[in-house]
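On clarity, I found the account of how folds are encoded harder to follow than it need be. Since the whole study asks how a given chain folds, the encoding of that fold should be made plain. For the editor and my fellow referees, an illustration may be useful. An entry of this sort, consisting of the sequence and the corresponding backbone structure tokens, reads as follows:

:::
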Amino acid sequence: MEQQLNDTYWSNRYQNQQTGWDIGTASQPLKEYIQQYNNKNARILIPGCGNAHEAKFLIDEGFQNITLIDISKVLVEELQEQLAAYPQQVQIIHGDFFEHEGEYDLIIEQTFFCAIDPVLRKRYAEKMEELLAENGKLVGVLFNRNFEGGPPFGGTKEEYISIFSPYFEIKTMGDCYNSIKPRANTELFINLLPKK
């Protein structure tokens, strides 16, 4: 499975518009979090950024230091065109999150965790802790439900606590009160602080 979920797989999904996870806008829970996050110069990473609706929202909110990474070359090329007017604010990288290096104040999780093979979830938690600055935060939304097959791959709050707690202090992991209707009662909002 891990080999299958590569550039070719995801580029084909984008080229064939098989993007059922894409809600067409930034997620409401993330919009509300971003609107109360005051440091406009924070180093922000969005891994597995997809169509980068959250990045566009961040730009509109005045954030100045956004890094996007995705494994799909086709998608990255599209984003580079779409966001060409913001070369100072946005860096777009075609690459593998697990090989990425950097240090960030805020990492935004939006349908990346559910897109990777579940065998990689421990590595995901380790890598997130490694990429975050000492006072950084991993903030986002996880599915609190199961799916047939995958991706997406679902899970439960208990499972996520066991994955993240060795690397993070779990400040928040609770039901989203502001999900869009089709995802009501199936999302958890997370705010995790690295144990550094």
User: Anything to note?
Assistant: The longest strand covers residues 132-143. The chain has one domain: 7-194. Helices lie at 7-15, 28-35, 53-60, 73-82, 121-131, 157-164. The mean pLDDT is 91.
